[in-house]
Amino acid sequence: MSNQSIESSGLYIGLIGPGEASTEELDRAETAGRLLAERGAISVCGGLGGVMEAAARGASSATGLVIGILPGRDRAEANPHVTVAIPTGLGEMRNPLVVGAADALIAIGGAYRTLSEVALARRTNVPVVGLGTWDLPDVLEGPGPAEAVELALALARTSGAED
User: Which of 66, 72, 150, 153 is buried most deeply by CB count within 10 Å?
Assistant: First the structure.
C-alpha cells in the first residue's frame, strides 16, 4: 500500500454479492466501487472474489480505501485490490461484521449469502440499495450503479452516519 492520502467522506458503504457472479454483476460491482471511491466513501466487503473483488478493483482504480473482512485467518486470502484485510476466522459468521461496519449496503445479485446480509442489515436498520438483488420490502432498487451509489450515500447520510 502506498503512503498516498485518501480523502474520505466519512461514509462506509458495504458492497455485497456472490463470490461467483455473472458478467453483468461484476460490471455493476466494479462501477459501483469506482463511483464510491470517487465520492470519497470507504468500501467494505468480504474481501474475496466475485462481486467483492470487482467492487474492490473499481474502488482501488480510483484510489479508494477498501476494507475486506475475511472469513479465514490469513490476510493473504484477500483479493489484490483490498487495502486493509481483516482476517476473522469466522467463516460465513463474518457477515454481521461486514453489515455492522457499513452505514449503508449495496447488494448486487441474488445469492443466499447475500440474502442473509440483506436481512441482517434491515433487521439492524442499515439501509440497503439493490442492483438486481432480492425483491424485498425496504430494499430500494437502483436502476444502475450510479443511481445505487447516490442513493446509498444519501441513505447513509440520513441514517446519521456522519454524526
Answer: 66
Three cell numbers at 145?
450503479
pLDDT in tens, 62-111: 999 999 999 999 999 999 999 999 999 999 999 999 999 999 999 999 88
Q: How many CA atoms lie less than 13 Å away from 145 in the CB half-sphere?
A: 22
Extract long-range pairs of 125-130: CB within 8 Å, 24+ residues apart: 125/159, 126/14, 126/99, 126/100, 126/102, 126/159, 127/152, 127/155, 127/156, 127/159, 128/104, 129/104, 129/105, 129/155, 130/106
Residue linked to cell 443466499: 112
Q: Is 138 exposed, middle or buried (0-12, 13-18, 19+ CB in 10 A)?
A: exposed
Kind of pairing, strands 66-70 and 128-131?
unpaired
**What's the CA gap between 21 and 73, in Å, rounded?**
24
Question: Are 51 and 22 contacting, i.e. CB atoms less than 8 angstroms apart?
Answer: no
Q: What is the distance between the terminal CA atoms of the chain, rounded to a whole angstrom?
A: 29
Q: What is the pLDDT of residue 110?
A: 84
CA dihedral sign of residues 30, 90, 161, 163: negative
